[in-house]
Amino acid sequence: MSPHISPRSEELRRRFAEEARAERPDLSQLCLLVAAEADGSLDEAGMDAVQMDLDRLAGQVPFRPGGPLAWATALAELLGTRCGFRGTPGDYERLESSLLHEVVLRRRGLPILLSVVWMEVARRAGAPVYGVALPGHFVVGFGPAQDQVLADPFDGGRVLTGADAELLVAGATGAPLNAAMLRPADPLDVVLRILNNIGAWAATRPERSDVALWAVELSLLLPAHPARLRYARAQLLVRSGDFLAGAAELDAYAEVVGAVDAPAAETLRAQARAARAMLN
User: Using CA atoms, how far apart are residues 183 and 187, in angstroms rounded to an integer?
Assistant: First the structure.
């Protein structure tokens, strides 16, 4: 076990990796294991309580209200209007906005975590629901592609017109909306995006490099992840003073990179040597 990982974190990561490799990964459970890594007070009972809250909310959804629009409207009425789940600009400044147990408690969060609440409640109620990873703004979709209805949980579940979705994408990227952006998001891609958000939050707060490190390390436990995350982990380890572990990670990443870019691999090995030299 790495010296910077506690026995509790080691167990959480084992469970996270196991769930991520399940035949049908449980999105809410993965999000709660991320939250438990962030919040040492979130224990098994606390995680179970969140699952029960989601079950309870699902029980308040009208029984099979109809087509995609009826489902979207019913979820907006329950979660957005009656329960007050929505987001504000200030939520982007809080780590809690990326932690499922806090979002369920506070009824505030980032678009992607509010979308997880919508998806988990709707799924339990039998809705044809999935996440839609629009660039810069995560939303939920109901129904098949030809009858798709989009809703924005950050805005209380407001049903989006085609023009609304185009504006969201144009505002985030300056590019037009295309059909590929409307495909259902894989649950593991949702988790990776959440961890990327946590890493981005920590990157602007140098004193929270510990958060950046565990976010990267959990990302690396997903079956598919960007190779560059190994370089990010190496940098964070060196920055935290774990020079040997950081150097080892740089050397390992150099082996991967060397197959396609020998000069880049040599640069990485030089960085590894520099990290080891810091011990002298």
Answer: 12
